[in-house]
Amino acid sequence: MSNKPGWKIELVSTDDEGCQFYLDHYKNHLAFGSTYDREIDFTNDDWLSRIKNPLVKTFVVVRPHEKRVLSATSLIGPLPNPDPLSNPLQVSTEMRDGGDQHHNHNHGNAQVSPLSFQISGVYTMPEARGQGFAKELIKTASEQAISSAKAQHKQLSLSVVVYASNSAAISFYKSCGFVVDERGPRSSFNPHKNSSSEELVMHYYHYHELPHT
């Protein structure tokens, strides 16, 4: 994990100390971004169900002396279906709770599927923007996904979904090694806003194939 003067990147742990940190410093400062309309009604148990989800790893940039969260992102996976999702956190919760409607069953298929991960997005406090925190977080999350794929001797599928109208986000992820899916925009319905929006899927491509063993 990156550790530089004045700040460092941490993986939020799922023990009692990590859960309390998540409630005190993440929920109260970095939540309520683009998903405000849904998360405003979350209880502490709702928030803790995220951090305790074994499919979710949340990375944060903090100032060590005050434990203040400056930026955060979550890596979700491995997911059963390589198709990127508008709300991977919701699907990972359903998987944890035993739902299988999103599973991609390939019994009898000799082709090995890639290990699929998705980045939920990255959010940085307004006063901390422009300092490279978001890029460091994406690098850390990407390295975690790559390490997992290598450990299982599988290819990696790592993606992120952004609004097609968010040119700043598209440019940012391109600078982090992602490319826009050649299929272009897709329409996605948000039941919490009761509206549809155009999304773009972006795939991580700075990844070398594993050597044959």
Your description of this structure?
With 213 residues, the protein is of the alpha+beta class. The chain has six helices and nine strands. It is globular, with a radius of gyration of 17 Å. The relative contact order is 0.13.
Q: What is the radius of gyration computed over CA atoms, rounded to a whole number of angstroms? A: 17 Å
CA-based shape = globular
Oligomeric form: single chain
**Count of helices?**
6
- Number of beta-strand segments: 9
How much β-strand is present in the residues?
Answer: 25-35%
Spell out the helices and strands N to C. Answer: EEHHHEEHEHEHEEE
End-to-end C-alpha gap: 29 Å
What's the main sheet like?
A: 9 strands, mixed
Chain-wise SSE layout:
Elements: E1 3-4, E2 7-11, H1 16-27, H2 36-39, H3 44-51, E3 56-63, E4 68-79, H4 88-96, E5 115-124, H5 133-151, E6 156-163, H6 167-175, E7 178-180, E8 186-190, E9 195-204
Parallel strand pairs: 5-6
Antiparallel strand pairs: 1-2, 2-3, 3-4, 4-5, 6-9, 7-9, 8-9
Helix pairs in contact: 1-3
